[in-house]
# Entry
Amino acid sequence: MRKMTLIFIFAICLFVPFIGFCDDAVVLKYTTKIDVSSEKCIQTENVIIQVNNAKGDKYVDFVIDYSSNAKLKNLTGELRDIHSTVIRKLKKSDIKTTSKFDHFLFYNDNLAKRFSLKHNVYPYIVEVEFEHVISPYIYVAKWFPVWNTEINTQKAVLSVTVPEDYKLKINQVAVDSPSKQVAEKGVTYIWSSSYTSSNSEDIFAPPLVDILPLVSVVPQNFYYIKPGSFDSWKAMGEWNLELDKGLDELPSEEKMTIDHLTDGIEDSRQIVRELYHYLQDNTRYVAVNIDLGGLEPYPASYVCENRFGDCKALTNYMKAMLSYKGIPSYKVFVRAGETPEKIHTDFPSHQANHVILAVPLANDTIWLECTASYLPFNYLGTFTQNRPVFLVEPNRSRIIYSPALTEEEVTSVLSYRFTTNENDPKVRLSALFKLRGEAFEYFKGQSGSWTEKEKHNAFNELIPFKNYKVDEYEVMPVHRDSSFFILETTGTCNSPYQTVGEFVKVDLPSMNLPVFEKVKDRELPLDFYVPLAQIDTLFFDVPYDVLELKTPDNQAFEDEFGNFEMKIVQTSGQLCIVRKYNIYRQKISLEKYSNFYDFITEMKSSGSSIIFKPLK
Amino acid sequence: MKPIRFLLMSLLLCSLQLAGQTTESKVRELLDLQSYENDKEAGALIVYDYGVSDFFQGESGFYTKFTRKFRVKFFNDSNLDYSEISIPVYFGERKVEEIEDFKAVVYNLKNGVIEQVRTDKNELLKEKHLKNWYNYKVAVAGVKAGSVMDVEYTVVSPFIYQLNDWQFQYTIPVLYSEYLVYMIPFYLYSYIIKGTSQLDELSSELQRDKYPILNLEYQKTRYKFVKKNIPAFYGDEFITSPNDYLISLDFQLAEINHLEGYNEKITTTWPKFTEELIKETSDFGGYIRGSKKLAKETLKENQFVYSTKLDYLEKLVDYVKANYDWNQYSSCLADVKPGEFARTKKGNVTAINLFLVTLLREAGFTAEPVILSTRNNGKIYTKYPFAHYFNYTIAVVNVDGTNYLIDASEKHSYFDQIPQRAINEIGLVVAKGEENWVNLTSNNFSTDLNTFYYKLNNETDSFSCTYNCKEAGYFALNSKNEYKDDPEKFIKDNITPLFDEVYNSNVMVNDTLRFFRYTAAGSVIPTRIDKYISIKPFLNTVYASSPFKMKERAYPVDFIYARKRMFSAQILLPEGATLVKLPENFEMENEFFGLKYNAALRGNAVVVEAEYSLKKPVYAPSLYPGLRNFFDNMIKYFNQSVEFELK
# Structure
């Protein structure tokens, strides 16, 4: 009996990992079956999830979207115990219907069905199946073998069935080629894969979607509002241009306004600037998505009337204004985000989530972000810079690269002055910040809508010094097209001086370097899409005439990852420290991460404090 | 006749013309306005805000019409979200609220000419929320910095139980706010004015017009509520809910005078209110009765073994916590039927706790539901029996003369520990025909004890440190929730940052003795300059920066619960080392705060013992300077270093 018990326990220990028993939940199987015809795509999804403990219950809270062009049908669900005995089935009364809320949209007409299937005896199994009928469509499939990124998927299967004469295009990454079956119904392609979840929160890591297996399937030819083709980027561009036909008409009143604004201006660049400022001052970004999943373009007149629009509408409006003045410009579709997802440049298809405008002039191309009233003219921020983008130009649509922010454009310059008073344990700190790059975009974009208190709090947080309390602040007015934000603030903070024996240690404010994972904890490579750079100058009043510096007064080092420099100058009663660092725009493999970590550690320790001995 | 008619017409035209000019000049004045002198930071200003609620007779009874008309001047684009209008409407099973009318006009100045852009009812977009609520939304066209926007809409409602409340104050200043309510003698309402002690005008006037109904006539009484020059509402940290401080008007139906001649009290007293909940409300009293079957079955199927009554209570509570899930929705009525609750094992907080009450009663306990308002829902005014205060239910159980407050929706709390979201002054015990309030706030301390033991290594470049933290009360609950959710993250967030390198860590949860404890050992690199070594005894476990940076504060500071933190560090001096600097001692003690810091050399070790306490859960604004001073002292003394010199 004891022997049998031991064998049983041993067997469980062997068996347990394979059924994901140690995870909170696991997807046993996730099947996607797509039946394609020229008019519609019927996508049937079936997922079987095993929930192993109470923490896994959240994975059987379902939210299934649908819309007028992606109708939901045949939604079923079943709860079973581990022996496959059905405990209960999903009832209509279990399902609630609400709008599909999206933080980025003011309104969208998508709906969602919400329900849960939960048991109190673990483990238990939930199987849900539903069908979407999508018409019209421009994607047959954009598939990852993932139901939920937080839990493993043991097996994921995609099958796509098309009529025999149907022309399609396939892009697959990190997944084996499909098997192919020919039957009366048509040709069926089947892919199979799996997914192992990662809890990685590594900073500056590539986006998860770039690491996952992927299968994209698109029709070579399609009808989506108008007929189109994914045969090439050029063909796709022609379709986009067809969609926009006739949508650039401006009301006569608007034309008069444009004429008035640009009266007497000959220079094209100046005209573009004038009209861009007009757009920024007179419109705002409000995204209202109705019909056809947000792909339908809006006419320029929509923006004229409403004075708002989403990125497509505002960009189209700007383009229409330039066109009226005889200045050609081109819509540019981009995958926006601070960590850009990969664009498959050899696979013409809809991969963007944002639109900007490129205006080629004689000696230069101007890039315009039409949704942000606070950004300077000809500035692409961290959101859209340095990545492949799809430029739509008659007969020449193609992939190009958006301009990259330079080191100078992202280098913030900070200045601190510490003043002590014998009778006051607190130190007065005056700071002057010239913020660029991401910090500029954040403060310029947000500070306009902050209350007094919110500004106070934000500027307090900006000072990387202990217990800083703002007394006064002032945002310096700069030209609207400046790509920097200047803030001056005065306040008090804890004393940075610490006496240690006969020495004085001065803690310096942090250099705003990110906190990188320790070498043993890092799981993913790094990708710096923009350089990280900063220069700061610190002035300290010291109540000594002469100091013997223990910290070297001149430190500098550089390697493949970047460079760092720190200089200390002393005058009577004052210490001046200048620190500069630059982490280059680059990709760093996991193998090189320990070298990079050493570089960062050396930088942080070199620039964190200075030590001196006052000489009598 | 003709000449008189002509004269009247002229007079009418003349007055219309004059009115038109006045409106245009007023708009022009506003268009030219660059800022509001009383609040230069304000991105927009509500120039006027008029609301009218009136009663009308329909085919199937009375209905209300609520009309709102307001004007906003936008100075810059920081508050353009005030042009994104959202109007909630309620859909009952047989009756619905409707938007009868909506219009907006936006004025902009263009080359000295006032231009208008209109938005009408057709632009409204419908958004469905849970439980019978829809939002009608529209982004008003034509708005930009400098614009003046007029909005007017009317909502018709058959639900006379809910008269429109009125909000005077917003996050932008309001120059003039007026709410008129035309009451009819058949429905009487109570109201509360929140956020202010008085209005600029509060009056009532019987109207002249008479309205026939059956063989009667009635007149309306117009109530007028006015507030002027209302500053923008700026929230703050450590407050419960803006609802508690925003100036607003809250209505509740109190009485119906039926045409048949009898008078129906809707809610006049708390005892009546609780009686109705128990006897007549299907999603409360009805739910309790409907849960009996499940409760009986539960007791039958699970043969609970216990030693004492309290032990039995704890086991029953643990059973409900383990087997039923909160769906994250709060209401003081159950959102599922008992049958569905039994089947799905899921419900809102009231569904769970009413079932708990039923289960406890079947097991022989004296248990009652307690309804309350969560912290983010605003507080309860006991003077006014308003049903809509309440959005949460817990249970109160008496065992041997002691009351225990229990919330079975909170899985990780001790059986008699209610979650922080429910700690909002008082709750109402729902017992038939009674008015009993229970205090939800406790002055009991939540505590932690942090101990540190340091020993310098042979190379004298780092200390090995052993750290021990023992938490009780809400400190323990918070840590337990964090830890159960994600143990790795808990260690990463709470233990790893303390050390330069962690050797090991261990977490212990002891529900019997009610503490949460974790220990860790690792290395800490001190400040080392030549032969001098300096170390802060309490590492990063103490505040380095005060959370109170503003010089003044308008609202109470609410910490939710009183707390006491204790620290003890022992730093072993290496052989031959000399103590160079001992931290300065400090002590302050009063009924609100306590602070002690003591460092001494005892044999070959420096021993530092310190504690601080916030003795109240809530501090009035008048105590804010003292609180700020308390934090400044705590930060100053608790971040001191011990220094010694090696031989």
Summary: The CA atoms of residues 108 and 289 of chain A lie 4 Å apart.
